[in-house]
Amino acid sequence: MIDQEQASTRSATPRPSPDPRWASCREQLRARGLRWTPQRRLLVEVLADTAGHITGAELVERCRVLDPATIPSTVYRTLDVLEELGLVRHAHGPDGREEYHVLPRTEHGHLHCSGCGGSWDIERAEAAELVAALRRDRGFEMDLSHLTISGRCAGCAARPA
Ligand SMILES: [Zn+2]
Ligand SMILES: [Zn+2]
Ligand SMILES: [Zn+2]
């Protein structure tokens, strides 16, 4: 009951104009054979409010707060289609866990520090030599957004183990 009230209050408040790329989301999902259900609409609302990286489990949790009936498999299946549409992009944490980027600005990889748990973006320019070497020597086209490197950041590396 309380959740329903919160949900209606939420949708009644004027939200900052969403990124135009979300505007045709409903039609694009329908074109892929996915009905525009309340759960899918809720997921899209949660995503449109999200900045940076978010794991699938965190997304399920945020949807559950607003709608306790949220079904994780529906969230993950919808995420797959939203990724095909270019609205989200997944990468992997050091443990292999999927992390989603909402409306990724540029393609980038990730550095993860095993000491402090910090993470940083690897920009395309930083990866340029590796990208070029793999292409030249192996004819391999690297997917930078899927690259995650584990190690220790400067601060952790300077500290005695
Ligand atoms: Zn992957
Ligand atoms: Zn560190
Ligand atoms: Zn990232």
In short:
The chain is α+β, with helices and mostly antiparallel strands and 161 residues long. It has helices at residues 2-12, 25-31, 38-48, 56-66, 72-84, 124-138, 154-158; strands at 53-55, 88-92, 98-102, 109-113, 119-122, 148-151. A three-stranded antiparallel sheet has the order 1-3-2. Strands 5-4-6 form a three-stranded mixed sheet.
Helix and strand run? HHHEHHEEEEHEH
| Main pleated sheet | 3 strands, antiparallel
CATH architectural type of the largest domain: Orthogonal Bundle
Distance between the termini: 52 Å
Please state the average pLDDT score: 86
Spans of at least 5 consecutive residues whose pLDDT stays below 50 are 1-14
Account of the protein in words:
- This protein is an alpha+beta fold.
- It has helices spanning 2-12, 25-31, 38-48, 56-66, 72-84, 124-138, 154-158; strands at residues 53-55, 88-92, 98-102, 109-113, 119-122, 148-151.
- The protein folds into 2 domains: 23-102, Orthogonal Bundle (Arc Repressor Mutant, subunit A); 109-158, Ferric-uptake regulator, C-terminal dimerisarion domain (Dna Ligase, domain 1), CATH 3.30.1490.190.
- 45% of the residues lie in helices and 16% in strands.
- Strand 2 (88-92) and strand 3 (98-102) form a beta hairpin.
- Helix 3 crosses helix 4.
- Residues 1-14 have low confidence and may be disordered.
- Residues 113, 115-116, 118, 152-153, 155-156 line the site of one zinc ion.
